[in-house]
């Protein structure tokens, strides 16, 4: 499988909680990071997701927010993953920020160039990659 | 109202399943494609969505992932629509990929230029347009 | 056209900046809030967006993150809008949080029930509604 999403992380299903329409699926990565995803119940069934099963967490770069100095801030986004900026590539309107998470996984974020400047983002910065659970796809 | 989303597909509601907060709505397009959307219950009520009603499935280009060689891969995204690349336009960081679905509908995807290169995307490629259900809006 | 997105805000275009593929469009709401959107250039042209033109900023509830105690935290999301929680409705997996922005606009966010509990969200809380620019559609 080749997919345009810049972030495709291999891991294992940690747990699955079903609601009426949607289910919450947690994937654990080899580096220890947990990625929480919200998908529909039929998808859980069709992918036969269950604890321990190998699965991919797939995240588009444009769905990753970068946070700095989060301190005591709390966010509703289920995925707030600490790491370090390793690279920033500027375009005309959008820029790409590469972050190495503490567990070793590399995540790519696409944000506006304006935000790169506002946050004075550069290699070496301690930041968090922030992703809402409904923005995470699961692949098997 | 006209809207900035590049993909606005006219079709008919095929079914509506309500949960506690969210509902799943399926739109069938003239070419036969099914588009699954997750919206909130108040939206279902306010748009008076019901089987057979004409409605639009609305998808931002930046919410469309492109997949190639999916083979036996399974994805949680409820919408995995096979088609053929008809055009690729590169920007500095982002690129636009145009896909003609098997039913004839044309869908536009905005992905990073890096992904266009990684997937070696070009006109004529057999691919799938992948869209998570919560990224599909419904209009009437 | 009426649309399923819970957040449809009437305002005026404040400015449009084009890149190679994407453009940044800022909408100013009557209450003074600025909403920044990233859309594709062809959408700017087709909607004939220009300074002063009346337009709608359209945001799905599932694209709104809720932040609390942001303090000195900085986020790459271009839209970080302060306000007060006026209502919380719990579902099985998802909850709905209603926020009245300082300018008077009401915004609806759909987050997981787990996050409502983690942030101890309740009416009266001072929070921020956080939305990435590519998640904002423009309507005219």
Description of the molecule:
The structure is a homotrimer of 140-residue chains. Chain A has helices at 41-46, 113-118, and strands at residues 2-3, 7-18, 22-28, 34-40, 54-59, 65-68, 74-75, 79-90, 94-101, 106-112, 126-131, 136-139. With 140 residues, chain A is mainly β. Chain A has two domains: 7-59 and 135-139, Beta Barrel (OB fold (Dihydrolipoamide Acetyltransferase, E2P)), CATH 2.40.50; 61-130, OB fold (Dihydrolipoamide Acetyltransferase, E2P) (Beta Barrel). Chain A is elongated and about 45 Å long. Chain A starts with a strand and ends with a strand. Chain B binds chain C through residues 1-6, 19-22, 25, 37-40, 42-44, 46-47, 56, 58, 60-62, 89-92, 94-96, 108, 110, 134-135, 137-140, and chain C through 1-6, 19-22, 25, 37-40, 42-44, 46-47, 56, 58, 60-62, 89-92, 94-96, 108, 110, 134-135, 137-140. Strand 1 of chain A pairs antiparallel with strand 5 (65-68) of chain B, so a sheet runs across the interface.
């Amino acid at each position: 499988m080749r997919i345009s999403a810049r972030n495709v992380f291999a891991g294992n299903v940690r747990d699955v909680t079903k609601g009426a329409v949607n289910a919450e699926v947690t994937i654990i990565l080899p580096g220890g990071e947990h990625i929480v995803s919200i998908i529909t119940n039929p998808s859980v069934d069709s992918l036969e997701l269950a604890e321990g099963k190998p699965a991919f967490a797939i995240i588009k770069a444009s769905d990753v927010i970068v946070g700095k100095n989060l301190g005591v801030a709390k966010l509703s986004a289920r995925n707030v993953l600490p790491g370090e900026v390793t690279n920033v590539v500027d375009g005309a309107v959008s820029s790409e920020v590469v972050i190495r998470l503490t567990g070793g996984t590399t995540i790519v974020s696409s944000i506006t160039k304006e935000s790169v400047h506002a946050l004075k983002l550069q290699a070496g910065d301690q930041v968090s990659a922030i992703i809402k659970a409904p923005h995470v796809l699961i692949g098997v």
